[in-house]
Amino acid sequence: MNLFLPFKNEPKINSKRLLIASILFLLITSTSQSQTLRDIAPNGKYIGTIVNGNFFNNQGNNGPNYEGVIAEQFSSIVAENDHKFENIMNNEPSDIYDINTYNINTNKLDRLIDFANVNNIDVKRGHALMWYNQAGWLNGAAADWSREKIYTFATNYITKVISYRAGEINEWDVFNEIISDNNDGFRTGTWYDNVVADGKTVQDFLDHCFVVSRNALTAALGETEGNKVKLYYNDYSIESYDTNPNSKNGFMRNMISEMVNRGVPIDALGLQSHFVSPVDESFTNSISQTMDEMIGLGLICNITELDIRICNGAAPASAAELEEQRDSYERVAAMAIAKEGCTGITLWGFTDAHSWIPGWSNGECGDALIYDNDYNEKPAYYGLASGLSVPCLNNPTVPQAPFSGTPAVIPGVIEFEDYDLGGEGVSYSDIDLSNNGESDYRDECDAVDVVTEGSETIIGWLSVSEWLEYTVNITQLGNYSFIISTAADVGFEGEGSIEVDGVDVSGLITFPSTGGWSNYQDTEVINIALNAGEHVLRFNVESGSFNIDKMTISSSTLEIDNFDLNANLKAYPIPFNSTLNISYNDIERTESLNLLDINGRKVLNQKYNNEAVIKMSAENISSGMYFLQLNLRGSITKIIKVIKK
Ligand code: XIL
To answer: Is 94 helix (H, G, I), strand (E, B) or coil?
Structure first.
C-alpha cells in the first residue's frame, strides 16, 4: 500500500537532499578555499554574527583575526551588547521629556554601520530598543514612573535612536523578551508592570513601540524607504511548537498573530535559538512548524542568536560531541534557510574564545560556536556550511517549453507529471522548494511533488494555489470533455480548475474522496470549448488535498456549420444585434443554449421555454464572432458560429 499523505508539515528537506548538499559542499570546499559562509548562503539571505564589546572599544584584544573572520565569512552583524539601552544611553537625561541626539551614544551606532559599509556587510541589525534587561539606570527609575511617563520616554528614546542614520540599520529588534518563562503570559516584576493602568495593557505598550518605530522611520525616510527597515519581536524558548496556548510558544504565536491582525507594524519574528547539542530532527521539525505558521502570517521569521552549546561540565569537547554539534548546526540551518520567509541566520558569536555561554552557564556548558578558541573551524563550521547550501534554492528558470519536446495533442491523454519545462513561476507553482514525492522522473530541482511507484507516476501533496501548465496543440476548434483521474483518502477531497491561455474554461471541478491515496477515480467535465492551435493549458489547485494522475481529453459530439440540414436551423438575424432568434425542427429537444466567446467563455445562457422561437437577448455583449452552443437532450451538443453586429 502506498500512502501519499499530503502532509502539510512534511519535513521540507529530506535526507537525500542533505546528502546531495553535503556532497556538493565537499566538492566546493575541496576544490576552492574561497567559498566562505556568506558565499554559500543562498542569494538574498544573510549569515550573520555578533560583534562584541572589544570591537566597539577598539581595544583590538579579541585575537588577531576577529574582524578579519567577520569580514570574510559574514554578511550581517549585530552588536552583542553595545546597542542595548545601558550602552546607548548611559546616563539619565536631565529632562527625560526632551531627549537629544547627544544623550545617545551615536558612536556605537556609527562604529557598526561604518565597519559594515567598509567590509561589504549587507545587513546591519539593531539589538534591542526596548528590553527590561541591561537597561542600566532605566530599571531603577522607571520602577517609579507612571504609565504616561513610560510611554513618553519610550516614544522619545525609540524615535531618537531609530532616526539616527535612519535606514542604515536594516533591522531593529523593537522589543526583546516581553514574555514570561512561567507559561503565564507577559513577563511581570519589571517596569513593564507600570504600563498596566487606566485600562491599558502590556500588549498596548508593545504595540505602541512598534507604531512609534515605524512612524519615526517613515518620518525620516518616507513611506517606501521607511518600510524597508524590518521591525522585529525577538525572544528565546519560543522556537519549538507547543499546542498549549499558555506555553511560551503558544502565547507568542497568539500574541504575534493578533498583532498582525490588528495591523501593528511588525515585520518579523526573531527566534533567538540558544540551543543545547545535540539538536535532533524532531526538534527542528517543531521549530519548522512555528516558522511556517509565522511566515504564513506574512512575517519574516529568522534565527537571530544561534549557538548550540555542549554541556559536559568543563571537559574539553570529545570528537563525538563535536560531530553531534556539527549535525545540529546543519539541521537548524537547513531547516530554516530553505524557507522563503527566512531571510537570514545570525550566530551569537563565531569563536569559542568569545562566547557568553560559559559565563552564563557557570562553566557547565561551552564550545557553543563554530570556531574554536584559536579561530580554527570546528566540525560545526562545516555542518553550518552544508546546511546553508540548499542546492536548488537558486535554481534558475528556463523558458517554458513542452516536456516531451512537442506540445501534447488534444484530443489525447496528458499525464500530469508531464508538465512543461520552465520551473517555479514559469511552468508550475509549488508551495515549497523540494519534491516531497522524491521521484526521479523530473529534474532533481523541480519542486513539484512527483511520486513514482512501480510503473505509475503521479503528483501528490497538492496544495491550494499550486498550478501546473502544459503546452498543448488542439487539433480543431470544438467542444471537449475532460476525464480527470484523482485519488483522495477518506476524509479528503479537493477542487481544481482548468484555464486556457489565462481564461477559466471549466469553472470549479470537485474531486471526491476515493477512499485511498492510490484509489484513482475519474471525474468528467463536459462541454469545454477549445480553440484550435497551440495554447497553454493550466491546471489550478483550488482547494483541498488529492493526488492526480492524468487527464483524458476527447472531443464531445460536435458539428460546426454542419447542423443536420433537415433540422432547418435558423439563427437570425445574422449579424444579430439586440436579439438572436433561434428556431429549428425538434426545438422541444432543447435543454439550453449557450453563447460562447472565442475563448470558450460562456457569455449568455438561455433555458428552453417551450416557445417555437428561442430568443436570446444580446444587447450587452460586444460585437464579434461567437459560438452558439445548443445542448439537446441525450447529451448532444451542436455548435454554430454567429456574429454580433
Ligand atoms: C547576552 C550577551 O551575549 C552577554 O555578553 C551579556 O552579558 C548578556 O546578554 N538574549 C539576548 C542577548 O537577547 O542580548 C543576550 O546577550 C543573550 C540572550
So the answer is: coil
